[in-house]
Amino acid sequence: MSHGLSYRLKLRQIEPPGITVDLRAMPEECLALAARLDLPAIARLEGQFHLQPVPGGIVLATLDLIAEVTRISVVSLEPFPASVRESAQLRFVPAEAEEADDLVDPEAPDDIPYTGDTLDLGAALAEQLALALDPYPRRPDEILSPPAAEPRSETAFAALARLRGSADRK
Hints:
Elements: E1 8-10, E2 19-24, H1 27-36, E3 41-54, E4 58-72, E5 79-94, H2 95-99, E6 110-114, E7 118-120, H3 121-132, H4 156-168
Parallel strand pairs: 5-6
Antiparallel strand pairs: 1-7, 2-3, 3-4, 4-5
């Protein structure tokens, strides 16, 4: 399944001490990604990656993501604009190393496996946007109130006590 956003970068382009890569999704990419994420629209999606190579084919990354999206409120079911601003620490790890658990560190930032000699920064940006979205979006002025309390019915123990009391009187 295509996510609508791809930006491939060869590992040899990432030299010490590291590089910065700025991405901006084109309108057609935003349209395809919005459909994949079940969003009415993505008006803007940008990401700035700071990439640093480390031994073992690993690339450490810091991502600063900015997006302007349209969401559907879980309260009113009306569309509304929302801003997403997120920073993430990522590690691009060779897929074969991840499968063998050679380089996987449970305390490390999110691992993103890659194959060959190419990273797909567009796919990483799309994935981080998906992770940053509120699963229960609502307008800032909407309040999600709890359902009205129903009158309490008699508990089973209270009913037994009442029956026992009437049996004792007989």
